[in-house]
Specification:
Elements lengths: L1 E4 L4 E4 H5 L8 E3 H109 L3 H8 L1
Antiparallel strand pairs: 1-2, 1-3
Length: 150
């Protein structure tokens, strides 16, 4: 009948059990060793299965979170683009309104200056006429001069 040396974890025969090499080692029947080691192995296997179950759940959770974050990112990107587009249109309208107001104010100011230039031009013509008349008067003979200014 075969035995199992618990210390060396080896199979052995009854003769080897009595020999010097395994004499004081604890030994059991193969069936007992198989039951004990299968229980330990099953516990390890169960533990591995639990770890796998936990990892699979974590993987699923991470995938869901990844997809949620991806969807949130897309949604935020669209929202930001839409808001900037809206802001762009608003600013474009404001630009047009301000430029229109500026042109209107500029036209008013230019019209005032154009009117002033026209008045100054008329005054210039009148003064030029007076200068010309005065210069012509100075060229007259003394008697005609006094008569012209009188």
């Amino acid at each position: 009948q075969m035995l199992f040396c618990l210390k060396d974890k080896k199979l052995m025969c009854v003769i080897c059990d009595k020999s010097g090499k395994h004499r004081d080692h604890p030994v059991v029947l193969i069936k007992e060793a198989v039951v004990e080691y299968k229980e330990k192995f099953k516990k390890s296997l169960d533990s591995l299965k639990e770890q796998m179950k936990s990892i699979l759940k974590s993987t699923d959770d991470e995938k869901k979170r990844y997809e949620e974050l991806q969807a949130t990112g897309k949604s935020l990107t669209k929202k930001i683009k839409d808001e900037f587009q809206e802001l762009y249109h608003f600013l474009k309208q404001e630009e047009q309104a301000i430029l229109s107001q500026l042109m209107s104010e500029q036209d008013k100011v230019l019209e005032v200056h154009k009117h002033n230039i026209s008045l100054l031009s008329q005054q210039q013509e009148k003064i030029q006429t007076l200068i010309t008349e005065s210069e012509d008067a100075l060229k007259l003979q003394d008697a005609l001069f006094l008569k012209a200014i009188g």
